[in-house]
Amino acid sequence: MTATPVETPVKLRAVDAPDQPQVTPALEELYRGFEQELLVPLWTEIGDLMPAHPRSRAVPHRWKWENLVRLADRAGHIVPVGRGGERRAIALANPSLGGRPFATPTLWAAIQYLMPGEDAPEHRHTQHAFRFVVEGSGVWTVVGGDAVPMNRGDFLPQAGWNWHAHHNASDRPMAWIDGLDIPFQYVTESQFFEFGRDEISEDERITPEYSRSERLWGHPGLRPLGVSHSSPGTPLLAYKWEHTDRALADQLALEQAGHAGTVEPGHAAVRFSNPADGTDVLPTVRAEFHRIASGAETAPLRETGSSVYQVFDGSGVITVGDRSWSVTRGDLFVVPSWEPFSARSQAGPSDSDSGALDLFRFSDAPVFEALRLNRTQLDR
Ligand code: GTQ
Ligand code: FE2
Question: Which atom of ligand 1 is closest in space to residue 141's alpha carbon?
Answer without folding.
Answer: 1
